């Protein structure tokens, strides 16, 4: 077969300029989150197929890259169904492997456990511009802490990290699934219809308030329910006013929890924190607080998360409160690339050009000089001097090597 | 199906203590290699199956984790052979994807191109202690530089990095495939038998000099050939003496090249550099200089590499001189773990324990104090105070949080 030069469909080679930004972001993430006591962990990229298909992954379970069984020769003629050939797949997120990791290692982990994960995940999505089948996720999760300190820490860590990346004036929107449920209940929507009402409300960004109302009617809610629910959603960013409007439907614990988080985070940095009763977050596994970070000028969000107290227990059989925040790593890298962001460079960039035929002693002196500069933090490129030195220096300048030193066989 | 808690066969969860060492090593590798002008690059973990099976990967091609085709429903009943089901697999090394990357992107990369890659690779080896089916490789490669500056830079970068990790008194052994060929030729071994002679010589560590002689005889070399070849191999570490012994079989260019590298590197750090005529390196693709780093007290090597001028061209159709050095990342992490290595910590580790029921204003002050400490580089863990505070503090101490500050609802 011919050698293929392009990456496999939907995946990409990362070029030096993007790589520099990615490495910078990863470094900053690790450094910042570490000061909050988050511990980096890593799970294998390959996960049991039965775990990947355990109905916790939603739509992602349809997008799994499946891996052929190893160990014996592939018995194609005897295989009756896919399960005869496949026993593992590539992870589609970092949350499911974290649940397995926690179940496997809880005995040797601190409680609460503050986990930091950065790594690639794979989804066989339809290839489209700016969306790749291998991409990085970057998650922080606090397992085993039911208190609002968890949410507060997650929000402070994430906003602090975004500020260090040069983002300012961004907005953290916050809500609680229990507020959403109270809104639905106050509008006369019973438990069985609530998830549908939230799914529709979640489309507000795309279809607008009239679109939401129309869809709510279309899926079968009464005019009265729709008006009441949409009215509460349009209530604005005043949490105490929402509490009044919800009356006895309000979950007091949720309200106090949310108030405490908002007061603790308020004014902690150069960002706005707003209660947003229209914030839903797609994943059905959230049980309490939910939050999302938006940056002006860029649609959608750059980070999001929430509390999912039920999920770990469903995997492990042991109830474990959990709360997580995921930054949109690829999104942030794309924004920084588009902004022409350049990570701050420590030291300078120098190129040493060495004429061919230099004797070993002089060459040794050149390398010693390079080593000394490197020890002081500079980037030093040692290269053979080309015949077309002018062209070579132009190329070096394009890579940021403006400081060029030339070494000749006979000193000039 | 039941939820599986253990990782898939042969792979492992990385616990916090190991992760701390891994992150530290990766940081040091990136930081050190960057000062030499190496540019980080990344390729997808998933590679075309035809590239993986293009006969450059040797034995590794038998160990590929193969991925089922995506896009249409699996047509098991129509599949006649594996190729009907599989179009990609997980990469088993970083060199092959680098060749594809270079073929795909050479137009937008500097020349020579100094690439740094760190990332996971997968091999379905028989599971055994200390050997995993997912492991990290860490490679630096210089593509497009035929001069001995490339080897010199690679050796300086790698030894400098090992020294920063606390290794000292290690040994860099160096040889050249062209010296090995001259040794074989001088012993009367023709081109067709040379690779076999090298494979046997490569077992010297395991079977000793008598074992090597016995195997050389066994595979069909004459007593005279074996005595001459083994005699040259036992010649010792004196390169000029070897040159004399080889006489007209010596490749002068190889000799001068090797001399220049050795002189440039000699004395550049706290390690011994020795010419070793018994150094072979397993991979048949090497064409010139080869080198390996050993650490006293640990069998085998912690890093190795060499020049492989033919390989990239075979993939890309365009001749490209290439030279690379790979550090045994997992090996080094294991050694550091066994040595009880702890990465130097910046700032201190502090735990803030907060009594339950604190009002928002006081809580906000606690978080503000934590943020100030974090800004100054400390790690600060904010946790709810447990009922059993003594036990909690013991646990915190075990994690390195010896400095514990307590915050009460009513100040004491």
Molecular structure report:
The structure is a homodimer of 412-residue chains. The first copy, chain A, is α/β, with parallel strands linked by helices. Chain A is built from 14 helices and 14 strands. Chain A has 2 domains: 16-338, BirA Bifunctional Protein, domain 2; 349-407, no CATH class. An 8-stranded mixed β-sheet of chain A has the order 1-5-6-11-10-9-7-8.
CATH superfamily assignment of the largest domain in chain A?
Answer: Bira Bifunctional Protein, Domain 2
Structural class of chain A: alpha/beta
- Parts with pLDDT < 50 across at least 5 consecutive residues of chain A: none
CATH class of the largest domain in chain A: Alpha Beta
Overall CATH architecture of the largest domain in chain A: 2-Layer Sandwich
Strand content of chain A: 15-25%
Mean pLDDT of chain A: 90
Number of strands of chain A: 14
Rg of chain A computed from alpha carbons, rounded to a whole number of angstroms: 27 Å
CATH topology of the largest domain in chain A: BirA Bifunctional Protein, domain 2
Strand order of the largest sheet of chain A: 1-5-6-11-10-9-7-8
Oligomeric organization of the protein chains: homodimer
User: Helix and strand string of chain A, N-terminal first?
Assistant: HEEHEEHEEHEHHHHHHEEEHEHEHEHE
**Overall morphology of chain A:** globular
What level of helicity do the residues of chain A show? 25-40%
Give the terminus-to-terminus CA distance of chain A.
54 Å
